[in-house]
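Weekly sync, protein design subgroup
Attendees: M.S., D.O., the rotation student, P.L. (late)

Item 1: inverse folding check
M.S. brought a backbone from last month's batch and wanted to see whether the design step gives back something sensible before we order anything. D.O. pointed out we never logged the input encoding, so this time it goes straight into the notes. Structure tokens as presented (304 positions):
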């Protein structure tokens, strides 16, 4: 069995592995957001998307293509659907980031755990406890406090951020089925392949190559940072549900605020500390709920 279609059998405590993987992915996605924001205006969302997706395909095929057919997976139809929904989410949030302040785009986009909870109920019939609903609500409030509840920019940018949140919520929900028999690499490979097909026509109509060393560095940074971030996130979903992963991933907004304070001269206001505590505290509380639930399940199984 090839490494691209076999779930990674790593003996780790789910209550620890999930948050650690998601935090690492969130840190890398923060770097990706900054690269997208700073790359020259000549690069449209189609250029950025094509380089990310096609570059991802190239990297994965070079690393894993030697082990047989890298596209051989389970439930190919759902892999393709997840690839398209993930591509739509990425292009939507890139559009929002280019039109809005990064903080505003993230405030709206990180409503996606709520969308994921809704889709989990509609598709799988999963219900959330009151404590879990409270965790999602506190995360949304914490993000709002951290960024002063300011929704700056035009309506279209805000709409695209919300659209990205909806597609992201659906995407992480579909991973519930895919992760049962597919590893993180093949899930990402289909995502990049579908994204390449979506962005190629627009890219081909106005192709653009980086013209400076800095532009090349940023494009390559987008490719490699996104590959690492996505693989870590996909692996993280082997240990937690879609909306749970979204709560842990919300730490991205804390990392974004820290970058603003450390490198962009943003003040470390009370909003940063209160918002950060609410977001981080909610993630910690959710992790404890998950750990306690797993312990109860083990005791029940042992008693049988």
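Designed sequence read out in the meeting:
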């Amino acid at each position: 069995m090839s490494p691209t279609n076999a779930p990674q059998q790593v003996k780790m405590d789910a209550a620890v592995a999930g948050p650690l993987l998601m935090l690492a992915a969130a840190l890398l996605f923060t770097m990706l957001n900054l690269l997208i924001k700073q790359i020259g205006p000549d690069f449209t969302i189609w250029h950025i998307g094509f380089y990310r997706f096609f570059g991802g395909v190239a990297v994965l095929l070079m690393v894993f293509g030697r082990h047989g057919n890298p596209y051989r997976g389970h439930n190919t139809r759902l892999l393709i659907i997840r690839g398209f929904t993930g591509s739509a989410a990425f292009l939507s949030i890139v559009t929002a980031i280019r039109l809005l302040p990064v903080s505003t785009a993230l405030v709206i986009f990180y409503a996606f755990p709520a969308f994921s909870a809704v889709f989990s109920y509609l598709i799988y019939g999963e219900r959330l406890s009151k404590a879990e609903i409270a965790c999602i609500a506190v995360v949304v409030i914490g993000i709002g406090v951290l960024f002063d509840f300011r929704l700056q920019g035009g309506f279209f940018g805000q709409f695209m951020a919300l659209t990205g949140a909806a597609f992201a919520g659906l995407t992480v929900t579909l991973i519930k089925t895919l992760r049962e028999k597919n590893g993180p690499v093949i899930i990402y490979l289909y995502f990049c392949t579908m994204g390449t097909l979506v962005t190629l026509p627009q890219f081909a109509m106005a192709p653009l190559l980086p013209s400076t060393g800095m532009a090349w560095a940023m494009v390559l940074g987008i490719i490699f940072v996104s590959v690492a971030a996505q693989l870590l996130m996909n692996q993280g979903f082997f240990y937690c549900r879609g909306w749970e992963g979204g709560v842990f991933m919300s730490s991205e907004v804390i990392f974004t605020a820290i970058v603003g304070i450390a490198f962009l001269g943003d003040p470390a206001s009370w909003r940063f500390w209160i918002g950060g505590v609410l977001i981080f505290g909610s993630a910690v509380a959710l992790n404890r709920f998950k750990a306690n639930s797993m312990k109860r399940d083990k005791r029940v199984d042992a008693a049988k």
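Discussion: Residues 270-303 form the longest helix (34 residues). The chain has one domain: 14-303.
Action: P.L. to compare against the previous round before Friday.
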